Amino acid sequence: MHAWLCREPTGVDALAWTELPTPTPGAGEVLVEIHAASLNFPDLLMVQNKYQIKPPLPFVPGAEWAGTVQAVGEGVTHLRPGQSVACLSGTGGFATHVVAPAARCMPLPDGFPAVDGAAFIMTYATSHHALMDRAALRSGETVLVLGAAGGVGSAAIQIAKAAGARVIAAASSEEKCEMCRKIGADAVIDYSHQDLREAVKALSDGKGPDVVYDPVGGDLAEPAFRSIAWRGRYLVVGFAAGPIPALPLNLPLLKGASIVGVFWGEFAKREPKANAAMMGELAQWYGQGRIKPVIDRTMPMSQLPAAFARMASRSVMGKLVLVN
């Protein structure tokens, strides 16, 4: 097998395409031939030694992937060789093969391509957990999605629409805003040219959004929170802009609003039954055509450094997927 090996997390330039022995799955594990692996922002942070989870060295980055089971270890009964699966294993995806915990593998139904499978779990699970569980989104409410053209943002648009909400999508260019319109956003804001707070006020008849979905942080956080409706819920999803904002605590007091943390990975660990039910619902929605990953482009696995460069440039719309 071959894999992009990180011996020292000093950046993308330190990764090397390396031939390694093909591993054998142990108890509770599966060996999977990888067909597709998507890029997520934590993948970039991990090879830069900037992520909160620091895997033992050396490691193969690539949190999310899809492929075909080649062999199963002792005790694995729900998966079989030849079966298509998707997995969020945290590492190992930027390779031709990987051994992963069988419990983390999601069987893909017929008609679920590997490219979509590799771009599915992290973004849709995060957005569903955020909107439906943490925010208790109701039909008829208004959702403001920041960073709406990214992976989690585009998933949030689709999930909010599937739940019957009105969606205001905010993104950093007209091209990205147009993509948001195409996947269902009711209104868009190009915050590179528009004042976010004034635009939200105009698009919500002065009421503000009931829910703010924020995977961006940085300078957008405070104007977004100042725009929120009475009893609004502000979802802290991530900090793609870099800086972690500090919100004045008088704002939630004055708005009767809630600041709600979203940590899907911990939810999945602590509440596995609820997480499994959620993933089942998401797979059903995919089959019904209600949600579908937005794929920016596919690139050969050999072009991982170029893929990382495109991600770092903030030009990706939806998910970028590497294929073997």
Helix content: 25-40%
**Helical segment count:** 11
Count of individual beta strands: 15
Shape: globular
* Mean of residue pLDDT values: 94
Attribute tags:
single chain; 324 residues; alpha/beta; Quinone Oxidoreductase, Chain A, domain 1; Rossmann fold; 2 domains; seven-stranded mixed sheet; six-stranded parallel sheet; globular; NADPH:quinone oxidoreductase; ADH-like_N; oxidoreductase activity; Quin_OxRdtase/zeta-crystal_CS
Summarize the structure in words.
- By secondary structure, this protein is of the alpha/beta class.
- It has two domains: 2-120 and 293-323, Alpha-Beta Complex (Quinone Oxidoreductase, Chain A, domain 1); 122-265, NAD(P)-binding Rossmann-like Domain (Rossmann fold, 3-Layer(aba) Sandwich), CATH 3.40.50.
- Helices cover 31% and strands 24% of the residues.
- The chain contains eleven helices and 15 strands.
- Strands 3, 4, 5, 6, 7, 14 and 15 form a seven-stranded mixed sheet that branches. A six-stranded parallel sheet has the order 10-9-8-11-12-13, with helices on both faces.
- Helix 3 (121-134) crosses helix 4 (151-162), helix 3 (121-134) packs across helix 10 (272-287) and helix 9 crosses helix 10.
- The radius of gyration is 20 Å and the shape is globular.
- The N and C termini lie close together (12 Å).
- The mean pLDDT is 94.
